[in-house]
Design a protein that fits this description.
Blueprint: H1 2-9, E1 26-30, E2 33-34, H2 35-46, E3 49-52, H3 55-59, E4 61-62, E5 65-69, H4 71-78, E6 84-90, E7 93-98, E8 143-147, H5 150-156, H6 161-167, E9 171-173, E10 183-185, E11 201-205, E12 208-209, E13 224-231, H7 235-238, E14 245-251, E15 260-270, E16 275-288, E17 292-303, E18 320-334, E19 337-350, E20 356-357, E21 373-388, E22 392-410, E23 422-440, E24 447-465, E25 470-494, E26 497-515, E27 525-543, E28 546-557, E29 560-563, E30 571-574, E31 577-588, E32 596-608, E33 611-615, E34 621-625, E35 628-641, E36 646-660, E37 680-693, E38 696-711, E39 721-735, E40 739-746, E41 754-756, E42 769-772, E43 777-785
Parallel strand pairs: 3-7, 11-14
Antiparallel strand pairs: 1-5, 2-4, 6-7, 8-13, 9-10, 11-12, 13-14, 15-16, 15-43, 16-17, 17-18, 18-19, 19-21, 20-42, 21-22, 22-23, 23-24, 24-25, 25-26, 26-27, 27-28, 28-31, 29-30, 31-32, 32-35, 33-34, 35-36, 36-37, 37-38, 38-39, 39-40, 40-43, 41-42
Length: 786
């Protein structure tokens, strides 16, 4: 027995030679077994030293690890349920030790904005949105990755995309209200209005596509792992609908080793408004240990209104309510496959618009009738992945989206009378998509090849007339089919220089039909096109702490079919547009390792035949090509860790855009800017952390966010200004072992500004609409882990 104990106490060590083994992704296929044996196998596969000196730990059962991970990721999987943790002394030496307390799969870390404190030797970050094994420091383009802290999500997750926009100045949107906005990345904006035009930003949940030609679904962020934002165009890897870039939300995966849960709740109060609240909970439930699990997230949020309607004797008319859930299922090692399936359901309802009129009392607006909005979103997806041909990986994702939108506007006066009139628009969208890809290579020679298909159908129905019984007017049915083949590969041409090139060939077939119960409609108009988008990039590491990249890439969107301007019975087509961008960037030091780090890029964009959703002189929506756009910009970010307790971050951008060579149908004698994009913007954040004692930590943040001046639209009468405001916030949190208490104040100075000069298309010609900042709002929150 003593001999066995001594044998078990012998260090389970694998000696390796790889200098970067702890960060490089490897493919592991290690069966469950004693932790000592599993740790030795991990070390041998990755070429690092992994030591288990505790004989009792060495005998504990490990679930093993299968799949493609860094050493840190592989050990995290192998240690699940063992009561042990990994200590990284350097990139090549790891020791397995007993955890101080029973580990929680979702551990609460001190909240920091926007990134948490790094570990002693941080793991290198892989840009998974690149669909390849590319490290962030080797990605030849602009990418932002935010690892979500559970504490930050419990305080901000209910705010959805708005929380991301406040953190990232180059991510912008319109401001109609929750679930109604269009997203933009880095100044690539077509219009401020919703319509049949395909979005400029592709949005994804994991590998499942979320949108095509609809507003941002504005998903709740609770229990997400991180977000990756790639600046566009991303035509090679993501195809049409990624002119501006890609926003990819990555959820936490179901854990098949332990049952645990988290929950958060908060109550908020808005000055001059009402009281709101939010609540969310997550349950992780193993179904078969080490093989199968479910993860359920449920949530609900009520945002209080703050605008009054004196004519109807109503207060706080713009209340907003959202609720939903995400259900995820994972099955591991099914004949070598890992299967992820999920369902997302979310409903957003708003009682009225959140705009006011210039000249009226502050935070008040009078209308003849309410202007509610509803966004019902459904997503189902399946992703299957497995290692093939050694270290390569095959991934296939199929997703189906049902997206129903209903918007009501007060159209009183649109017929020249004072009788109340109601405009109602219903948009029913179905999107089926699949992508199958094969990726491989190492950190210097990653590659990916695959194919994808999209089938999208949208039915836009419109009604105009008396509030009780508005009559149907012309609507549009659009169908789009796309089949694409794509590939991208990197190859070193010198010890410090890597070239990357790729392309995407797309066959698209778009068809449109006018929907009009009165005239019987028109026949379907169809058009098939063959398009190619390419990219080429250089990544040059001048020194261990300084690198630069040069990137040229292309993107496009197919044309479509819309209601003609000024008509309720006629249709018109709009042409496809294409965009190319060249970008030069630098990276100095790493914000996860160094006290001071800087990233910056300059770029130039050439955008031809810009598609834009517009509002005509009668107030009805239409779509047209408005000309060509030219954009020149500069953006950057800085992180300074002044001490172990204080971190300062700053991110800023400059943008200069013009609309030139306008089409004859558009009256635009002068060059004007693209819509809704400020000329400049900056965000500064400061975070502190103080240890109050064992298992108690105080964190605090202060932020200031400046948004420069922009224009609502590219053509009169929409060339009205907006923006040019500064808003600040404060927050503090006390974190204990299993729960936390937080207090946050948004818009602490109660700033007033016009964030968005639109709320109702039927009054747009008067150029007097203002969307104010939400007044000062205080939230008290509580969260717990079980």
């Amino acid at each position: 027995m003593r001999g066995n104990r001594r044998a078990a106490a012998v260090v389970a060590i694998a000696f390796g030679l790889g200098a970067a083994g702890a960060a490089r992704a490897e493919t592991f296929n290690i069966a469950p077994g004693p932790l000592g044996e599993v740790a030795a196998a991990i070390g041998a596969r990755a070429g690092v030293t992994v030591a288990v000196t505790d004989p009792e730990l060495a005998r504990r059962l490990s679930p093993g690890v299968r799949g493609k991970f860094s050493v840190r990721g592989a050990l995290e999987r192998a240690l699940r349920g063992t009561g042990a943790g990994a200590v990284f002394y350097d990139k090549n030496t790891v020791r397995i030790v007993r955890a101080r307390a029973k580990p929680l799969p979702v551990r609460q870390k001190p909240a920091r904005v926007p990134m948490p404190d790094p570990p002693a030797e941080p793991d290198e970050i892989v840009v998974t949105a690149s669909k390849q094994n590319i490290l962030l420091d080797n990605y030849p383009g602009s990418a932002r990755i935010i690892d979500f802290e559970p504490a930050w999500l419990s305080r901000n997750g209910s705010r959805g995309t708005a929380a991301l926009i406040e953190t990232l100045p180059t991510l912008g949107s319109t401001n109609l209200g929750p679930g109604r906005n269009k997203l933009y990345v880095r100044g690539i904006a077509d219009s401020s209005f919703n319509g049949p035009t395909q979005a400029t930003v592709g949005q994804y949940l994991g590998d499942a596509r979320l949108n095509y030609n609809a507003p941002d679904p504005d998903l709740n962020l609770y229990d997400l792992k991180r977000v990756e934002i790639l600046a566009g165009p991303q035509g090679t890897l993501y195809g049409a609908g990624s002119l501006g870039g890609v926003v990819r939300l990555i959820p936490n995966e179901p854990d098949s080793d332990q049952t645990y849960a988290t929950a958060s709740t908060g109550v908020s109060a808005t000055r001059f408004g009402g009281v709101g609240g939010d609540a969310a909970a997550m349950l992780n439930l193993p179904l078969a240990k080490g093989r199968m699990a479910l993860r359920l997230v449920v949530y609900g949020t009520r945002e209080p209104g703050y605008i009054d309607d004196p004519s109807r004797n109503l207060r706080d008319i713009n209340d907003s309510l959202s609720f939903g859930h995400r259900l995820m299922f994972r099955m591991e090692d099914l004949a070598g496959w890992t299967i992820d399936a999920g369902v997302v359901v979310q409903n957003i309802t708003t009682d009225d618009g959140q705009y006011v009129l210039r000249g009226d009392p502050p935070l008040a607006r009078s209308n003849a009738l309410a202007q509610p909005f509803r966004n019902d979103y459904r997503l189902a997806y399946v992703t299957a992945r497995r290692p093939v041909f050694g270290s390569n990986e095959l991934v296939s994702t199929t997703s189906l989206v049902w997206h129903d939108l209903k918007t009501v506007f007060d159209a009183t006066g649109s017929d020249g009378t004072t009788s109340p009139r109601r405009f109602e628009e219903k948009n029913n969208i179905a999107l089926l998509s699949n992508e199958t890809r094969l990726s491989g290579g190492d950190r210097r020679t990653p590659w990916v090849a695959g194919m994808s298909g999209i089938y999208s159908v949208s039915r836009l129905s419109r009604f105009l007339g008396s509030p009780d019984d508005p009559g149907q007017i012309a609507g549009v049915r659009n169908r789009q089919v796309e089949i694409s083949f794509f590939g991208q590969a990197s190859h070193p041409i010198a010890s410090s220089l890597v070239v990357t090139g790729g392309g995407r060939l797309t066959v698209s077939d778009g068809a449109g039909k006018l929907l009009d119960d009165v005239s019987g409609g028109e026949g379907e108009s169809s058009r098939a096109r063959l398009r190619f988008a390419g990219s080429v990039a250089l990544d040059w590491h001048l020194s261990p702490s300084l690198s630069a990249f040069l990137h040229y890439q292309q993107g496009f969107r197919p044309g479509g079919f819309a209601v003609a301007s000024g008509s309720v019975t006629e249709s018109q087509e709009f042409e496809a547009d294409d965009l190319s961008q060249i970008e030069l960037g630098i990276r100095w030091r790493d914000k996860a390792r160094d006290r001071l780090s800087i990233r910056a890029a300059i770029f130039a964009v050439d955008w031809n035949h810009v598609q834009a959703d517009l509002v005509d002189s009668s107030g009805l929506p239409t779509t047209a090509n408005i000309g060509s756009g030219r954009i020149y910009g500069l953006d950057g970010e800085l992180t300074w860790r002044a001490s172990s307790a204080w971190t300062l971050t700053a991110a800023a951008f400059l943008n200069d855009s013009k609309v030139v060579g306008t089409d004859p149908a558009v009256t635009n004698p002068d060059e004007i800017t693209l819509p809704n994009i400020p000329r400049d913007g900056i965000r500064i954040g400061s975070a502190w952390r103080f240890d109050l004692g064992r298992d108690a930590t105080l964190t605090a943040e202060a932020t200031a966010h400046y948004v420069g001046r922009s224009h609502l639209g590219a053509t009169p009468p929409m060339d009205v200004t907006q923006g040019q405001y500064l808003v600040g916030g404060l927050g503090a949190r006390i974190d204990f072992a299993r729960f936390g208490i937080s207090l946050d104040v948004a818009n602490i100075a109660d700033a007033r500004a016009n964030t968005f000069a639109f709320g109702n298309p039927f009054g747009l010609s008067r150029q007097n609409q203002i969307t104010p900042l939400r007044p000062r709002t205080v939230r008290l929150g509580f969260d717990a882990r079980f």
